[in-house]
Design brief:
It contains 10 helices and 2 strands. By secondary structure, it is mostly helical. Helix 7 runs antiparallel to helix 8 and helix 7 runs parallel beside helix 9 (189-202).
């Protein structure tokens, strides 16, 4: 009937008006009130980085990708140089050194088990950090006391001799270092000490300058 038709037309118009008002208040596709993201803290960033590293490793494993031996060697080399640098800082680097020794990966590459025992003692010995980094590496990490240093090829005790650190020599011997270990030139610690004294007394420039040619103090080694 005309009356019913008019009533339906009026209701339809009212419905359309309500929809337009609602659309104006909340645009189509609007997610509603925006939530502010929490600020990213260092701990949050570290956790996110660890999660990303894990996901990347899983994805590569699923794709059948395996890291090469060169990748692992490079990661180990970086970790050892970083540890040597931090050990050379003594009290200033001990906290970071301890944290580094807890790491199992570098850049997503898994480090070999027990890698910490290969950390060079060169930096700690040359600076006589007996109460901080040297003590930590020798007594807690159980670093090999007679392992040749990567730069000089000398055992740690010879590094202590070359830098004139008798207290470090005595400490290493007390902890079990070999008193008859040979350096890269085939000298025992005693022979190396005698040669050092003779070279210093003669003013040998090459030997004197050797003390300043140590690259572990270069921050580029730090991870």
């Amino acid at each position: 009937s005309p009356q019913l038709s008019g009533l339906c037309t009026a209701q339809n118009a009212k419905t359309r008006a309500g929809l337009r008002a609602r659309s104006a208040a909340t645009p189509t596709g609007s997610p509603g009130p925006l939530r502010r993201n929490k600020p990213v803290t260092p701990d949050t960033a570290k956790t996110m980085g660890q999660q990303m590293s894990y996901l990347q490793d899983q994805a590569m494993a699923a794709a059948g990708y395996k890291k090469s031996g060169k990748d692992q060697e490079a990661a180990l080399d970086k970790a050892l140089k970083s540890a040597d640098y931090l050990a050379s800082r003594g009290a200033d680097g001990i906290a970071a050194l301890k944290d580094l020794c807890k790491q199992k990966k570098v850049g997503g590459t898994t480090l070999p088990k027990g890698w910490q025992q290969k950390i060079p003692l060169q930096g700690a010995c040359m600076n006589s950090h007996m109460n901080t980094s040297l003590k930590f590496l020798v007594e807690e990490i159980k670093v090999d006391l007679d392992a040749p240093e990567p730069l000089s090829g000398d055992p740690p005790i010879h590094t202590a001799v070359a830098w004139g650190r008798p207290e470090v020599v005595a400490y290493l011997l007390a902890k079990g270092a070999n008193a008859n270990a040979l350096d890269a030139e085939g000298l025992t610690p005693l022979q190396a000490a005698k040669r050092r004294q003779a070279l210093l007394e003669s003013g040998d420039a090459k030997y004197v300058n050797r003390s300043y040619d140590y690259t572990a103090s270069d921050p580029k080694h730090y991870l």
